[in-house]
Design brief:
alpha+beta, five-stranded antiparallel sheet, 2 helices, globular
């Protein structure tokens, strides 16, 4: 899965495509998926380009942890106290459709 600098997430990060933001800071952006697979479906993406889960390095440990903290905060903010799923797909054969690491928060 080659990285495309014009993929949908890169364009969202550059502000070229609008999104319904849930959270944003210097390291991550969380927003509602435009094709939700659950009543609540939020994507959490790093602002650093990491193509797939397989491309994570030890230097990314704090960032990856931060993505999960963001997902937990979004779940709380969106009323998912009863439970939710956090999913990361990796590569074409793992169901990843955009070549930019992202965490799916699914609930409701």
């Amino acid at each position: 899965m080659a990285y495309d600098p014009n993929n949908v997430f890169a364009r969202i990060l550059r502000g070229e495509i609008p999104c319904k933001k849930v959270f944003e800071n210097a390291h991550a952006l969380a927003f509602h998926d435009i094709r939700p697979q659950a009543p609540v479906h939020v994507l959490v993406i790093p602002k650093k380009v990491i193509r797939t889960h397989a491309d994570i390095t030890p230097a990314d440990a704090a960032l990856i942890g931060h993505l999960h903290v963001v997902a937990a905060k979004a779940a709380a903010d969106l009323g998912l106290a009863d439970g939710y799923r956090v999913v990361v797909n990796s590569g074409d054969r793992g169901g990843q459709t955009v070549p930019h690491l992202h965490v799916h928060l699914l609930g409701g």
